[in-house]
Amino acid sequence: MSSVTVIIPYKKNLNFLFPALQSIFSQTYKKFKILIIYDDEDKSDLFYIKKFITKKKIKKKYSIKIILNKKNLGAGESRNVGIKLSKSKYIAFLDSDDFWHKNKLKIQLNIMKKNRLIISHTSYNVINESGKKISSRKSKKITNFNDILNSCDIGLSTVVIDKNFLKKNNLKFPKISTKEDYVLWLKVLEKIPNIIGINKCLTNYRKRKNSLSSNTFVSLVNGYKVYKNYLKMGYVESFYRLFILSINYLKKTYLV
Fold first, then answer.
1. How do the domains of the chain map onto residue ranges?
2. Distance CA 105, CA 157 (A)
3. At residue 203, what are phi and psi to the nearest 5 degrees?
4. DSSP sequence for 102-139
5. What pLDDT does residue 211 have?
6. Which superfamily is assigned to 4-254 in CATH?
7. pLDDT value at residue 158
8. Which of 160, 154, 157 lies closest to 95, judged by CA?
9. CA–CA separation, 120 and 82 (whole Å)
10. Rounded CA gap, 256 and 245, in Å?
11. How many CB atoms lie under 10 A from the CB of residue 166?
């Protein structure tokens, strides 16, 4: 059995998907399985993905499976599909336009096993579409519920989490187009005291101009939903929390 299942939701990122996969193949830790959740009603990219992963040297070495969603679910719910199908002890998330350092899983899993951690995340670099480094995000050693309420500093593609913990607590990504990972981390921190950060840049997060997360209006609407719909706060507190979250985001983005 693989120790880790790497879950990759996919939609129209063909040029970035292959480097993402190569970064998994290059891992010094080899006990992994890859689930690509194909979340696009347009199946035109499917041929190229299948052709890539069925190359003899890849098919022979790695366990890769493509899951086809019957309809477009979005990244969060696609990850839920992968979590449900996983039989590994750990789940690792990787978005199809991001990629890892070769020692990412080895370093992270060694620390998690040694300290019996349920979840961990790492520092990461922010790169542009051409791969040039723009900035970096340093992970806090310890993040609790109140910390993350004001600023979400956990990069999705850096996270590794215990699958049984998710299953036992019925924790899933919500039905929301952005900030779905933010909701999940908040729900995790309602169950455990803190999330441990590893201050090593082991992931490259690709900031894209036309992505959903770069749409300011969508991000603000979904930020409000996080507080109002998922944390059940009142209108005033929800707007206040959204204001603080936005200020902290601007500080990280433009003052670093």
1. 4-254
2. 12
3. -135, 145
4. TTHHHHHHHHHHHHT-SEEEEEEEEE-TTS-EEEEEPP
5. 62
6. Spore Coat Polysaccharide Biosynthesis Protein SpsA; Chain A (3.90.550.10)
7. 98
8. 157
9. 19
10. 16
11. 21
